[in-house]
Amino acid sequence: MATLLSWLGRTDLDQMKLDKTASIATIALKAPAIDDVVILASTWEDEWHDYKEWLEKSLLVPGVPILQ
Fold first, then answer.
1. In this structure, how many other beta carbons lie within 10 angstroms of the beta carbon of residue 2?
2. What's the pTM value of the predicted model, to 2 decimals?
3. Is 22's pLDDT higher than 90?
4. Is the pLDDT of residue 68 over 50?
5. Is 58 exposed, middle or buried (0-12, 13-18, 19+ CB in 10 A)?
6. Is a pLDDT exceeding 90 seen at residue 65?
7. Rounded to a whole number, what is the largest CA-CA distance in the chain?
8. CA 25 – CA 40 distance, rounded (Å)
9. In the chain, count of helices (H) and strands (E)?
């Protein structure tokens, strides 16, 4: 089981607004197989929900459901 553990950065949030990937999404998309993504953050609570939804949408693979 592979887990991506990362810190949420300002660049991740800024790029999300442009519908572009930054470090977290880029790593998750290029990794051979990741089972879980764990994101740490101590700020930007007001933007977290939007980022989570955007990341889930960005990582969708046709025919493969996202497990909750």
1. 9
2. 0.78
3. yes
4. no
5. middle
6. no
7. 34
8. 14
9. 3, 2
Specify whether the CB–CB gap between 22 and 15 falls below 8 A.
Answer: yes
Exposure of 53 in the CB half-sphere (CA atoms within 13 A): 6
The length of the chain, given as a count of residues: 68
Dig out the tokens for 1 from the structure. 């089981």
Separation CA 57–CA 25 (nearest Å): 11
Q: Is the pLDDT confidence value at 63 over 60?
A: no
16 closest CA partner among 57, 65, 45: 57
Question: How far is residue 65's CA from residue 14's CA, in Å, rounded to a whole number?
Answer: 27
Euclidean distance between CA atoms 51 and 25, whole angstroms: 10
CA distance 51 to 48: 5
Q: Is residue 62 pLDDT above 80, yes or no?
A: no
